[in-house]
Amino acid sequence: MIVVGLFLLGGIYSFARQQMPKGVIVLLSLGAAMCLAAGVLRLDVWS
User: Most buried pick, 5, 6, 29, 31, via CB within 10 A?
Assistant: First the structure.
């Protein structure tokens, strides 16, 4: 999941440079944040 989150972060950077609509960037950033959070929680560091 962390790899997917990092991939989506790269997409956010690319879309921001291409001046895509802000709504698309916001949705992509929410997806990236959720993927990164899920990946970190699956690391079993917290338990």
Answer: 5
Q: What is the pTM of this model?
A: 0.81
Specify the residue for token string 């440079």: 17
- Other beta carbons within 10 angstroms of residue 6's beta carbon come to 14
* Contact between 8 and 35 (Cβ < 8 Å): yes
The domain limits of the chain are: 2-41
Chain segment 19-32, per-residue pLDDT in tens? 999 999 999 999 99
Residues contacting residue 3 through CB under 8 Å, at least 6 positions apart: 39
